[in-house]
Amino acid sequence: MLDIEFLMSVFARLIVGLPMTLQLAFVSVSLGFVLALSFAILQEIVRYKFFCWPISALVGCIRGTPLLVQIFIIYYGFSQFREVIDFLGLWWFFREPYWCAILALTLNTAAYGSEIIRGSIQSVPPGQIEAAKAMGMSSSLMYRRIILPLAMRHAIPAYGNEIILIVKATSLTSIITMVEVTKIAHEIMSQTYRATEVFICAGLIYLTINFIITSSMSKLEYSLSAHLRPASNSKAKPDKSQDLPPENLCHI
């Protein structure tokens, strides 16, 4: 028998962790987008690939390892180098689980996002680039006016998926004591031993957030692709002269 009263109480307690979940996702996605855009542009415009190797190595390492491992390395691993971190004046940062979670999520989404944006930049039609060069545009102006607007439009569906993945990945920060939705769900389960109802409620919260994100990204993609949709049928009155016989056209 479904216990509605228990489910409502679980929802009420889980909602308390929702602001932290949204904050982690919003901050990490915002910072990660800036890094992803910088990484993608640098990898495309720098002629000497030697200077891009550190970025490629960082992106490869992050994409090749689980996010949970990255969180453990940042939160638990860096604390073993306390003297060095103290010397750099960064201990205030690495001693707080919040900032470690933000750093791990930001680097993770930046690595995946940079590949999404870089692929979108490479998908820009060469004819557009040649036309911009023929008009005498500089590289910075060409990227600002031609390449990046087209690339961002192509990247919206894939980047929307990345945002959804980061929202779900915030649940992993409960491992380092971040009090968000999943952490509270664990606490309720340990008190009530009713895992099914508790995590169904938690799953519905994540599902609602991601549904809103999916709908928003779909509307954004739709609004930016008006030029790809067929023009609406004109409501102008038809030209009745087309229905007249040829001998009557001279009287019109």
Give an account of the 3D structure.
It is a single chain. By secondary structure, the chain is mainly alpha-helical. The protein has one domain (4-226): MetI-like fold, CATH 1.10.3720.10. The chain has helices at 4-14, 18-45, 53-64, 67-77, 82-88, 91-94, 97-122, 126-134, 139-169, 181-192, 195-224. The longest helix has 31 residues, at 139-169. The termini are far apart. The relative contact order is 0.13.
CATH fold name: MetI-like fold
Largest sheet: none
Radius of gyration: 26 Å
Q: What is the number of helical segments per DSSP (H or I, 4+ residues)? A: 11
Reading off the top of the CATH hierarchy, the class is best stated as: Mainly Alpha
Structural domain tally: 1
Key phrases:
0% strand; 72% helix; mainly alpha; MetI-like fold; 11 helices; 252 residues
Topology of this protein?
Blueprint: H1 4-14, H2 18-45, H3 53-64, H4 67-77, H5 82-88, H6 91-94, H7 97-122, H8 126-134, H9 139-169, H10 181-192, H11 195-224
Helix pairs in contact: 1-11, 2-7, 3-7, 4-7, 7-9, 8-9, 9-11, 10-11
